[in-house]
Design a protein that fits this description.
Helix 1 packs across helix 2 (35-46). The protein has 98 residues and is an all-alpha fold. The chain starts with 14 loop residues before the first helix and ends with a helix. It is elongated. The chain has helices at residues 15-27, 35-46, 56-64, 68-82, 90-97. The longest helix has 15 residues, at 68-82. The chain has one domain (6-97).
């Protein structure tokens, strides 16, 4: 389900800002966050309501003002939504309950 977003036209222009934010997260110890993950968060969470008249600087501001807490909360919820929990093995269940 790869639906195009209105702001995808800015994606290549804001690549340096995305890389900068990714490097910031890396310095904070979050080395598995990609620029694509950050873009997906912004499209699905921050920019749910599209604005046809948005300016490039507003997109860059959204990227650079993103806090790691916002991103991790979103990522955690998405991971829980997508995960399939099957506790068929009793040993796995006991391990989780320790």
């Amino acid at each position: 389900m790869n639906v195009s977003h209105e702001y995808d036209r800015f994606r290549s222009l804001v690549e340096p800002a995305l890389k900068s934010k990714q490097e910031e997260f890396l310095l904070l110890g979050y080395d598995n966050v990609s620029d694509e993950d950050i873009w997906r968060f912004l499209v699905k969470k921050k920019w749910q309501k599209e604005n046809d008249e948005i300016k490039l600087y507003e997109i860059v501001q959204s990227i650079l003002s993103l806090k790691i807490g916002e991103f991790m909360n979103y990522s955690t919820v998405e991971a829980l939504k997508d995960a399939e929990f099957t506790l068929e093995n009793e040993e796995e269940l006991l391990e989780l309950l320790k």
